[in-house]
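Exam revision sheet. Question 4 asks you to relate a sequence to its structure. Input first:
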Amino acid sequence: MSDTPPQAPPPGDAGSLNLTAAIEALSGAVQKKEALEQEKVQAAGVLSEVKTALGGYTRWSPILTSLVENLSEALVLTKLEARQSVMRCRVPAQDDPARKVDVCVPVRELRICIGGKDKDSSAEAVRRFQESLRSSAALGPMLDSITVSQNAVTLDQQEGVLYELNCVLKPVVP
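Answer key, structure tokens:
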């Protein structure tokens, strides 16, 4: 065996051309790989945003069923409105829990307007309705707060009471 290292072919040789072509092909592949990795990071960011948006999705059917099942015959549903707004919230970053990041969190509200004829019996029915919403399997775990307001009304020359229940649902923080 010889102690001399193998020598590269002279610059004009065919072996040199093959080596240059291989280097150029590999550098193109490395650039393509880096571009694909950047696209992957961008796609992951978009998927994270989609996940956050879907996390704010609420299935309303079970909630509406719960409302109908728990509404007393002494009360009449006059209006039902669902609203969603966005609140900024600081949460720990996924990649570094010590660092806080701002995220947009959906906040949902359900406004229920109900009316009753007699103030005393309606007030008790509204209190029971409020408690049934809090203990409902569909709505209870999602409820953050319920506020109730009341107004005396006259409809067709009959006295009545109109109640508005504003149900704020817990924000879904990613």
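Marking note for examiners. The radius of gyration is 33 Å.
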